[in-house]
Specification:
single chain; alpha+beta; Alpha-Beta Plaits; about 200 residues; elongated
């Protein structure tokens, strides 16, 4: 039973029969309406949805308008960057330039760490760097591609921390840059008008 101000109150009930012959009534799935925002909010680590709803709508119960307008986040906690599972990015360089980087050792060490769910190595910012080369006794300048690499790690904050991950990266033979959180903190979210009922 929903109150008359519930966003589910206008949905028709769904009646189904289970495998034991019992009739069960439930609410229909509420599809997300098309939503566009009139302005944006930069997410801060201290934000709470009911506080944002009070600030923008004058009613803390209308927080779900903000969630509907930001479907790329799968939960309210993800929208505010408060999920226990987070993703961080570390720029990495090998500690021995010119040697073959020990990628397998790095992957094995990170995947063996408690709390780590996924590890991905990516190449970024490919650019061309001028280098001197000798071709048939002639010194020429050639443009050589240069790649920067990063490690993206999804992990459970309750089991590991960014400092632990950086230490594992260093122990595997790499230099780790500062961790960059891949999530909603510091990013813009849509604040829609309060016209959806």
């Amino acid at each position: 039973m929903f109150s008359r101000i519930s966003r589910y109150s206008t949905l028709p009930p769904v009646v189904a029969t289970d495998d034991e012959g019992r009739t069960v009534t439930s609410a229909a799935l509420r599809l997300l309406p098309p939503v566009s925002g009139t302005f944006h909010h930069i997410v801060d680590g201290a934000d709470r949805l009911e506080h944002l709803a009070l600030k923008y709508y004058g009613q803390p119960r209308n927080w779900w308008h903000i969630c509907d307008a930001n479907p790329r986040y799968l939960s309210p906690q993800a929208l505010l960057g408060k999920e226990p599972i987070v993703t961080v990015r570390f720029a990495v360089e090998t500690q021995t330039p010119g040697a073959t980087p020990p990628w397998a050792a790095l992957l094995s060490a990170l995947q063996g760490q408690i709390g780590v769910e996924c590890v991905q190595i990516v190449e970024e910012d490919a650019g061309l760097v001028p280098q001197q080369r000798t071709i048939s006794t002639t010194q020429v300048t050639v443009l050589v591609p240069q790649f920067k690499r990063a490690v993206i790690i999804r992990y459970n904050q309750q089991n590991a921390g960014a400092a632990d991950l950086a230490q594992t990266i260093t122990a595997a033979g790499f230099t780790a840059g500062p961790p960059e959180t891949v999530g909603s903190i510091g990013k813009s979210i849509v604040i829609p008008p309060d016209v959806l009922g």
